[in-house]
Write a structure and sequence with these properties.
five-stranded antiparallel sheet; Immunoglobulin-like; Galactose-bd-like_sf; lysosome; Beta-gal/glucu_dom_sf; alpha/beta; TIM Barrel; carbohydrate binding; 3 domains
């Protein structure tokens, strides 16, 4: 086992190092270490929205040159959170334009007096564009003289690899693979990658120490299978949104842990980050618990011909560079998605998607690339360039609504047409129905819990037929209800969740739970006759 993995690492090492060279720059997730301190800036910030007609009054009056409160009335705004959901001011509920946040921060004295100390301000995320103004700067002198020490430790703190030199290449002494949860007898297995850098500067030696959790695994795609560590993997999971009551899209640890407990309860083994990269802490949890991720960039809304131009293309490529650079070290990420429901039937979209996909593959040759389509199989210009076909379809909801009896025939035709044309594995990346919790009707009518449950059951009949052939996954839309803009078709947001926005289960959640655990057990025992003691003792049993 150890020898085989050492050989695997010898093959993968240069590839991963080449990927790293292609993505030079970027910032590691801030972790405290003997040489690194972290100061959280979460909490209450001063806040003001620019309600002027052109939304640029703050720049014109240079609000940044004095305390924000001196420019006019301010609000207390918790960070992280979505300002739209916090205030009782109706103008903020759907406000689009510049808003201003201000926080006065006192740095530790040693940060400012030690000239060898590098201070970095990190914004976890900002939607959708941000300008950061800081009235204090620190310059850092560089050095070309350094020694790099790298060590890889297992969960028991045993050394499994080490190395020295300018590139820190590792020599593996023995390792275990990172496995997705519920697939095999092994739980997710992470190592601790320790890097120590000692540099000689004009001020004397300076050391830096960083620890990164890493996992070792392979991903491959055949004409009909998705393989993780050489074994077939079936995605049975959800699409999500970073959304909840009060906090909106603001990151919240209790909410994250609750969501992962619900994923465990469902028996889900995967989700897609629809339709943007999620907080890094989410991916860290996926690494830790073996939840597989389709990592999607914010390429959503590409619905018009004018969107597929060279300016958008260059920006889209830059965004993929940022996503891959940030998330490439997460073993849970097994595939990149470059867009959701683009107008891929357009000729201009074909070239556009071809270039974005090729660019992403060049950035990371180790992972397959896809985009999520709702186009017709015969007209889709981007499908020839993906590794996996991801399909969104809402039969008996947006099409032939109310006619549940048509789903099996329509879904069968969908799968067979796509596979015959492209000979690639398929994921049903979205399907579902809006449901108002507490609405009941028999025979089932739209928006009732019975209708959502019946619709899912019809999809599952066909999915069970095709998952033994070339369908490699199913992701329900959606994990939980989420807020949207007001419209006559939305009742306080999108209600396609199998959980409410408050994370309470609808009837469909129990149906999905029974199905996912059945699939998980089938998959689990197809690779291991003996019942796993590891899985029995894991938090996901």
């Amino acid at each position: 086992m150890a020898r085989g993995l050492a050989v695997a690492w010898a093959v993968l090492g240069p590839l991963l190092w080449g990927c790293a060279l292609a993505l030079q720059g970027g910032m590691l997730y801030p972790r405290e270490s003997p040489s690194r301190e972290r100061k959280e800036l979460d909490g209450l910030w001063s806040f003001r929205a620019d309600f002027s007609d052109n939304r640029r009054r703050g720049f014109e009056e240079q609000w940044y040159r004095r305390p924000l409160r001196e420019s006019g009335p301010t609000l207390d705004m918790p960070v992280p959170s979505s300002f739209n959901d916090i205030s009782q001011d109706w103008r903020l509920r759907h406000f689009v334009g510049w808003v201003w946040y201000e926080r006065e921060v006192i740095l530790p004295e040693r940060w400012t007096q030690d000239l060898s100390t590098r201070v970095v301000l990190r914004i976890g995320s900002a939607h959708a564009y941000a300008i950061v103004l800081v009235n204090y700067q620190i310059s850092v002198k560089g050095s070309n003289l350094f020694e790099l020490q790298v060590r890889l430790l297992d969960a028991e703190n045993k050394l499994v690899a080490n190395g020295t030199g300018t590139q820190g290449q590792l020599k593996v002494l023995g390792a275990s693979l990172w496995w997705p949860y519920l697939m095999h007898e092994h739980p997710a297995y992470l190592y601790s990658l320790e890097v120590r850098l000692t540099a000689q500067t004009s001020l004397g030696p300076v050391s830096d120490f960083y620890t990164l959790p890493v996992g070792i695994r392979t991903v491959a795609v055949t004409e009909s299978q998705f393989l993780i560590n050489g074994k077939p993997f079936y995605f049975h999971g959800v699409n999500k949104h970073e959304d909840a009551d009060i906090r909106g899209k603001g990151f919240d640890w209790p909410l994250l842990v609750k969501d992962f407990n619900l994923l465990r309860w469902l028996g889900a083994n995967a989700f897609r980050t629809s339709h943007y990269p999620y907080a890094e802490e989410v991916l860290q949890m996926c690494d830790r618990y073996g939840i597989v991720v389709i990592d999607e960039c914010p390429g959503v809304g590409l619905a018009l011909p004018q969107f597929f131009n060279n300016v958008s293309l260059q920006n889209h490529m830059r965004v993929m560079e940022e996503v891959v650079r940030r998330d490439k070290n997460h073993p849970a990420v097994v595939m990149w998605s470059v867009a959701n429901e683009p107008a891929s039937q357009l000729e201009s979209a074909g070239y556009y998607l071809k270039m974005v996909i090729a660019h992403t593959k060049a950035l990371d040759p180790s992972r397959p690339v896809t985009f999520v389509t709702n186009s017709n199989y015969a007209a889709d210009k981007g499908a020839p360039y993906v590794d996996v076909i991801c399909l969104n379809s809402y039969y008996s909801w947006y099409h032939d609504y109310g006619h549940l009896e048509l789903i099996q025939q329509q879904l069968t035709t969908q799968f067979e047409s796509w596979y015959k044309t492209y000979q690639k594995p398929i994921i049903q990346s979205e399907y579902g129905a809006e449901t108002i919790v507490g609405f009941h009707q028999d025979p089932p009518l739209m928006f009732t819990e019975e209708y959502q449950k019946s619709l899912l059951e019809q999809y599952h009949v066909v999915l069970d037929q095709k998952r033994r052939k070339y369908v490699v996954g199913e992701l329900i839309w959606n994990f939980a209800d989420f807020m949207t803009e007001q419209s006559p078709t939305r009742v306080l947001g999108n209600k396609k969740g199998v959980f409410t926005r408050q994370r309470q289960p609808k009837s469909a959640a129990f149906l999905l739970r029974e199905r996912y655990w059945k699939i998980a057990n089938e998959t689990r025992y197809s690779h291991s006759v003996a019942k796993s003691q590891c899985l029995e003792n894991s938090p996901f049993t």
